[in-house]
Amino acid sequence: MAKAISKHLTDYLDFLEIERGLSSKTQENYSRFLNKFFLWLKDSGLDKLSPEKLTDKHVLKYRVFLSRHTDPRTKKTLKKSTQNYYLIALRSFLEYFIERDIPSLPPDKIKLAKDKADKEIKFLSLDQVEKLLLAPNIETRIGLRDRVILEVLFSTGLRVAELVALDSEQFRITEKTKDMEVSVIGKGSKVRAIYFSERATMWLRAYINKRQDMDPALFINYKPGIEKTSNPRRLTTKSVEEIVKKYVKIAGLPIVTTPHTLRHSYATDLLAQGVDLRLVQEFLGHQNIATTQIYTHVTNKQLRDVHKKFHSGKNLKN
Questions:
Q1: In the structure, what pLDDT confidence band is assigned to residue 156 with cuts at 50, 70 and 90?
Q2: Per residue in 78-91, pLDDT tens?
Q3: 149 with 220, same domain?
């Protein structure tokens, strides 16, 4: 007799750790999300259901359950984004079955709940990005550092935590260096390569050549008097957020612009240039393609606008 779906959980978590390299915290989250599904199966009299017996009708009923489920703490139904966490975990579970040649429902049968927030991805146009990049006063060491931070954020799509974790020793830039590649450790301790454009590399070279300190951090604090103390000088994520906020005001950009907006802008520009979604997923370090798919709402709208402008049928005679 085939094992019930819930009985595969332990092997699945081992798979996440060993073959996916996910952290214990991430494994804990996936386990918690899947336990909601297992409890629903039990309450529905399906606790002995095996993977090959799972159908899209079961999934539909589970989605209805999630949409109507009330959080005992808030007394409110689950947000669409929260529902999707449970669905993404289930999709990942089905992907595990494929990896282990266990017959089951195809992962693409798990459709995510549509969330209006997905359509509200905030990003900057290239003209707006240029205004932001030009805002710092590069004649000062703080201004030069800030220009490099903005250039690197847009060139690489780094998360803020990944940016502030960069060390100077990772960069060996000579006068002949045009562009470069560096490895970073992202979410879930996943290592990925990030790529610096020729322009970003140029600004990095200028910044590093101006540095006269021995601090290991790439981006450091220039707070008056800090050089004379033993306090760590590495910028924090909060500091970078404040830096971006400062230049957003100077450039006259939408006040909601944050460091993550530059990451959104980076991803959106890649997709608008025709880069495959799977490659964008790799660039961003997303574990699941569903996370990257939020950007397709933006590029799809751009495609609609282009089609409407250039292929509306207005030039037809009849």
A1: very high
A2: 888 788 889 999 99
A3: yes
Which residue of the set 187, 192, 205, 234 is catalytic?
A: 187
151 and 263 share a domain?
Answer: yes
Does 120 fall in a domain?
A: no
- Regarding whether 174 and 45 lie in a shared domain, the answer is no
Catalytic residue among 53, 79, 190, 260: 260
pLDDT at res. 302: 58
- Answering whether pTM is above 0.70, one says no
- The answer to whether the CB of 302 falls within 8 A of the CB of 272 is yes
Residues 183 and 67 in one domain: no
Q: Is 297 a catalytic residue?
A: no
For the question of residue 20 being annotated catalytic, the response is no
Domain boundaries, position 192 = 126-305
For residue 70, report the phi and psi dihedrals to the nearest 5 degrees. Answer: -105, 130
Cα separation values, 259 from 31, 172, 198, Å: 31, 25, 21
Q: What count of other Cβ atoms lies within 10 Å of the Cβ of residue 9?
A: 16
Per the annotation, the verdict on 286 as an active-site residue is: yes
Which has more confidence, 24 or 41? 41
Per annotation, catalytic residue among 58, 91, 147, 286: 286
Asked if residue 137 and residue 104 are part of one domain, the reply reads no
| Backbone φ and ψ of 135, nearest 5° | -70, -40
Domain membership of residue 133 (yes or no) is: yes
